[in-house]
Amino acid sequence: MIPAWFRKAGLVVLSSLLLLMAWQAIQIGRANLSYLAAHNAAEYWRKEKLIPSQESLQSALMSAQKANSIHPNNPHYLLTEALIWEWQGITLNQIEDLSKAKLLYLEATQYRPTWPVTWATLAILKWRLNEFDEEMLYFLYQAERFGPNRKEVHEAWLEIGLHLYQQKHQYTAKLIKPIRKHLRAMLGSHDKEYHRSAVNIIERHQAQRLACSWIQYDLNLAEQFNTYFCS
């Protein structure tokens, strides 16, 4: 027969475990609510193509930081805080905020190293920071390694590649083939969003003549996009 004191001790331990699990569940719930507040704000700005106010940026940033403080090492939460810092850096033209975003994106890669969009975002951040170095190339190649067909990866290669090509940067020779490959992939996609994105990037860099010369080797692309780039 089990002694009474042993049963009581077991009940105390079980109760403590249940309380601990309940407390952890509450904390996770709080973290998730804070994360969703920040994530939804950023999604709203993106979809509506808004320039967020400083107040809304700060509110979203506080929510993201709260989520990370409650539940650290969560890659989704890290990426969301990084995104808010990036938005703030772009909106308020604050380089230090972009640097903070970069560190958080890098931290997220420790937990999810195969997420290609994170690597592509890091490459774009290097471009925004005017840091054209081996680290930037590493980010681009990591993005291509894990997501060769992702729209965001194509966009990073085309955006950065066109900039470096027009600047006659020393990396142009290394990047010219991948740039052309990603341009062909975007224009050859069945998804019209890929087409629109490629055309927008080319127009933003005023690289229509360059794109025209590149697509002439593909008769299908030349026939479809000559009016955009070669007229």
Automatic annotation (TrEMBL):
Lineage top rank: taxon: Bacteria
InterPro entries registered for this protein in UniProt: TPR-like_helical_dom_sf (IPR011990)
NCBIfam families with a match to the protein in the record: exopoly_VpsP
Name of the featured protein: Tetratricopeptide repeat protein
Lineage summary: Bacteria, Pseudomonadati, Pseudomonadota, Gammaproteobacteria, Alteromonadales
